[in-house]
């Protein structure tokens, strides 16, 4: 497979695909739907990625290989609300920072619906990190080898092979034909259940290019001689992926080829697929795998011909991928942010007692210099009465006498001589405790009017909205509160 191909060849299979297989949008540049347009490549700061991953918390690890892997992948939430996968390299990898940045930028120029695209990187000191689109619906390995409810359908297996071939052809056309350690853990499923090729394999794990980590039984023969990945090596690995899809197991190529040569290829087939595919389809896929697994690299097909061969085998092309995969649509990503503070967690749990403790402990420190505008009546009896009503309200708040606290705080607010966001926050909680969520929501919004960037005001709005059952708005308020809190702690 050459390092590049003509634009015509890329466009040919693009234009000849059925619209259903393209999901009505372009494979490149996100199509016409701007909502789904790909983000531009960004160089993130280490602090931004620490915040996104909760300081690289072990709880955020999504890599199949676990915490002790040399390069660990974390799930993260950026400030703009986008979920990402963050790959943190071992400190001994990429000693040349300039080379790392050049590689990352080159891979970051690729944009396709068949890739889990690279959207950024970070290079600070010894830290080297890549940031990619987050794919919420697990890996091919999970769906193929470790399924719980039902085996992957035949039509979905064919679609995985086809989309993967498209991804490799796209990369080849863009001058990135080399892919390192292609395996079932590198195929990820997006929120629509569509298979995508992880962009991380387009980056070398280190500067010498020696990046195969799988069992040697699955390694291309020429790699064992030279220690280098070639375009033909990638096609060999694609052949091992076809064996995975055919058998539902990770069978060493040598064993599979022995079965095929002995005309026992039906022994390769996943027994759970019996009766779900025609012999012709099975034979064609076995033939294609055999071509990919040729010992002589030059005898293997290139990515473009893989696309052509697999296109004619596609089944149930009008059925969405999430239906074929048997997963709920659009619900894979958990709605709540990762980086919740104790106050955020209390809102999410609707734990009013915990909110009371937090507000009581915080006191009025956030009022300092915010809106303590005193009128000319400040030394009059009216001012003294207003301050006394606040004082009595605080005493009732501490004693959890919420009805009395509401009355006292109302007197303070109606006095009009002094504005306090904390009083609105406290009366808001008293309303929540008294089963008056609508009134509580009004106070939380009033606190925001007085102090527009106050996290507490948004937290309390979230609490009120959760109690009212307005989930989407509650999540948005919680997200805003978390963002403001993070910004405040950074300053």
From TrEMBL:
Task: Give the enzyme's EC designation.
Answer: 2.7.11.1
* Reactions performed catalytically: L-seryl-[protein] + ATP = O-phospho-L-seryl-[protein] + ADP + H(+); L-threonyl-[protein] + ATP = O-phospho-L-threonyl-[protein] + ADP + H(+)
Q: Which GO terms describe its biological process?
A: brassinosteroid mediated signaling pathway
Q: Which residue range or ranges hold the Protein kinase domain?
A: 59-325
PROSITE patterns on file: PROTEIN_KINASE_DOM
Q: Which SUPFAM superfamilies match?
A: Protein kinase-like (PK-like) (SSF56112), TPR-like (SSF48452)
One Gene Ontology term, aspect cellular component:
plasma membrane
- InterPro entries per UniProt: BSK (IPR045845), Kinase-like_dom_sf (IPR011009), Prot_kinase_dom (IPR000719), Ser-Thr/Tyr_kinase_cat_dom (IPR001245), TPR-like_helical_dom_sf (IPR011990), TPR_BSK1_C (IPR058209)
Q: Which Gene3D superfamilies match?
A: Phosphorylase Kinase, domain 1 (3.30.200.20), Tetratricopeptide repeat domain (1.25.40.10), Transferase(Phosphotransferase) domain 1 (1.10.510.10)
Is Lipoprotein among this UniProt entry's keywords?
A: yes
Query: What GO MF annotations does this protein's record show?
Result: ATP binding; protein serine/threonine kinase activity
* Keywords assigned by UniProt, alphabetized: ATP-binding, Brassinosteroid signaling pathway, Cell membrane, Kinase, Lipoprotein, Membrane, Myristate, Nucleotide-binding, Serine/threonine-protein kinase, Transferase
Q: According to its record, how does it sit in the membrane? A: Lipid-anchor
Q: Does the keyword Membrane apply?
A: yes
Annotated compartments:
Cell membrane
PANTHER family cross-referenced by the UniProt entry: SERINE/THREONINE-PROTEIN KINASE BSK5 (PTHR45863), SERINE_THREONINE-PROTEIN KINASE BSK5 (PTHR45863:SF7)
Q: Which family does it belong to?
A: Belongs to the protein kinase superfamily. Ser/Thr protein kinase family.
Per its record, how is this protein called by name?
non-specific serine/threonine protein kinase
Organism from which the protein derives: Anisodus tanguticus
